[in-house]
Amino acid sequence: MRIGELAQKSGVSRDTIRFYERNGLITSTVGDSETNSYRNYKEDCLVWLQFFAGAREAGMSVADLRSIVEATAESCDRDVARAVIQHKIEELKERANQIVDVVQFLEKTLSGPK
Amino acid sequence: MRIGELAQKSGVSRDTIRFYERNGLITSTVGDSETNSYRNYKEDCLVWLQFFAGAREAGMSVADLRSIVEATAESCDRDVARAVIQHKIEELKERANQIVDVVQFLEKTLSGPK
DNA sequence: CTAAACCATGAACAATGGTCTATTGTTTCT
DNA sequence: AGAAACAATAGACCATTGTTCATGGTTTAG
Asked: How far apart, in Å, are the Cα atoms of B26 and each of A81, B29, B32, B44, B108?
């Protein structure tokens, strides 16, 4: 599929998709047309992009995402991938705890000072 | 207390403290010394800074923090403050859910593709 | 056919959140 | 007294995460 369709389906803008691609989060191939150089995106780009959107909101950096993408690449050692992802999961869980703390502080602030 | 002590106690660097101050997250007064213009920070700056550190990690922006600080200011309407903070709490909880989703995706990735 | 919509590429621009440097003055330790 | 540590201020600098722009070509709908 082409970038426009991908953008529309994923809810990620063309520009951001290109940005992600420049940063190695997704890849595309140049189509086989003789007349244009439009790029072609596979289905799994869509899956990734949807994941990226949530992951960015959850606070993961582009670099984090790249490391996950790279880890899950075909070429990569399954155990390495497992370790990388497990590590990210731990980080995220810690972040979730952090949020709980912050919420508690805020709720205390609400009820606290008079 | 002076900025160095505050930095050391809060774990937030001097530069960052000054940055936060420039951005209205904390305030200080110029001490009453005749010879210097060292700034003076009160105890509650320390409390705030500790909160800021956690809140930033949890994904709140400096602007978010400022709105909370402003809302809790003496001058401010209690109900407005309540609303602002309640709103931030909702946002944080949603972020926490987002994290859960991302973790699920990652765990699925771990067990999923062989 | 032709205007509107789409695409590629590269570079510039922007906001956020700091961090570092330069300069100058103050305090404190020995 | 003199060195080391601390402080204030202003401005430069940096990475991250996009967005916008300029340019030029392609496709598609009417």
From this structure: 43, 10, 19, 9, 43
